[in-house]
Amino acid sequence: MINLKKQKFLIIGAGNMGYAVLNSLIENKISSKNILIIEKKITPKLKKLKSKHNLKIVKNVRLLKYKFVPSISLISVKPNQLNAAVDSSLEKFLSNSLIVSIVAGKKISDLKNIFTLNKGIVRAMTNTPASVNMGTTLVCFDKTIKSDQKKIVRNFLSLLGQINETKNEKVIDDFTAIFGSGPAYIFLFIETLIKIADKSGFKNSKNMVLQTFLGSLLLLLNEKDSPIHLKKSVTSKGGTTEAALKILENKNGLSTLISKAIDKAKKRSRELSKAN
Ligand SMILES: NC(=O)c1ccc[n+]([C@@H]2O[C@H](COP(=O)([O-])OP(=O)(O)OC[C@H]3O[C@@H](n4cnc5c(N)ncnc54)[C@H](OP(=O)(O)O)[C@@H]3O)[C@@H](O)[C@H]2O)c1
């Protein structure tokens, strides 16, 4: 296991995702001396973290007054902000660093054109549960990345939760549609159940729905069983669950709808990758 404590981290863009990574670094006892943040806008949340941990934040690298050589640099600005964020001084600053980009739609080839002095590019995509260290992340390494560099990146990104790897960069669009947007699908399902429970007059609908989700997930994890089998075990012949599932699983039901929705999201992800 390569020790992250020996690495120097640069975070460019400490918004939702950059902040989540920063927070994980701090939670994992990475010294603030080994962290530098480049961020245009210091939100109250970031300001609080900065003063609590004595973090160094600059608006751009030209304002840095001391020597800092990043070994890993996370690029977490919005896709339309990337070109403006990278000027010749930043490019030079990053020339010896591994670059880990989570910028949606920016391919490794695009990143190589932007960071022309740099040879170590990694593209990753994650999702918002990363902010509670339960993210699902997909990583694609550029061919030039060596195995010890891969180990460092794996350790770094596993601070956010589970990591998975692919050699086929194209599947990142599918990943974005299924897992990047995935939390929104789950939240929609939860929101729908809460509304239905509210209509039935329950006073504690949200907690009841959350407990049902959490309980079902834990059951699935504990039993190490398939969802199909566990679903069957709740469904007795002629019973209430069966009546509901007949609607949810018919040809216009939930499975068809989810497939259609994700196909649309995949298409959109490809369109955005081309447009970026
Ligand atoms: N949110 C997700 O679920 C998710 C999941 C995976 C990947 N991503 C990707 O992660 C990236 C960041 O997403 P986000 O939701 O964290 O966006 P965000 O909250 O807007 O964070 C980006 C931050 O970067 C700052 N910034 C912009 N240009 C800068 C520059 N030149 N120098 C320094 N800081 C700069 C922005 O400041 P201003 O607000 O002032 O512009 C903002 O605070 C995006 O590329 C997105 O595609 C997001």
The name of the CATH topology of the largest domain is Rossmann fold
- Structural class determined from secondary elements: alpha/beta
**How many separate domains make up the residues?**
2
Low-confidence stretches: none
Strand content: 5-15%
Q: State the share of residues found in helices, binned by percent.
A: 40-55%
Major sheet details: 8 strands, mixed
Summed over residues and divided by their number, the pLDDT gives a mean of 94
- Kindly state the number of beta strands: 8
What is the second-level CATH architecture of the largest domain? 3-Layer(aba) Sandwich
What is the CATH C-level name of the largest domain? Alpha Beta
General form: elongated
Distance between the termini: 36 Å
Q: Which molecules are bound besides the chains?
A: NADP nicotinamide-adenine-dinucleotide phosphate
Q: In DSSP terms, counting alpha (H) and pi (I) runs of 4 or more, how many helices?
A: 12
Write the element-wise H/E pattern from the N-terminal end onward.
Answer: EHEHEEHHEHEEHEHHHHHH
The rounded Rg comes to: 22 Å
Determine the CATH superfamily of the largest domain.
NAD(P)-binding Rossmann-like Domain
Strand order, sheet with most strands: 3-2-1-4-5-6-7-8
